[in-house]
Amino acid sequence: MGEIVQAINDRWEEFRVEPLEFYESGNRVLALGTILTKGRNEDGFASTAGQLWTLREAKIAAVEGFLDTESAIRAAGLTRLLT
Length: 83
Fold this sequence. Notes:
Number of helices: 2
Oligomer: single chain
CATH architecture: Roll
Strand order of the largest sheet: 1-2-3-4
Distance between the termini: 33 Å
CATH topology: Nuclear Transport Factor 2, Chain: A
Structural class: alpha+beta
Strand content: over 45%
Radius of gyration: 14 Å
Largest sheet: 4 strands, antiparallel
CATH class: Alpha Beta
């Protein structure tokens, strides 16, 4: 995980994830939103993204990140959201 954070810090001046929607699926929570970046030379991008949080005993046990919402929705088993 530390390598990922370091790679993000090396490449991007600004990197943030803005969650827009949340869905519960048993002991997991699916958060769908947008990744927004700004590079050191002013380049950047915006992209849809998802995170799947697994909870155990009211604590975060695992987090999976996805660079597109469809993959995140499928991993959560919430294919009814795909229309």
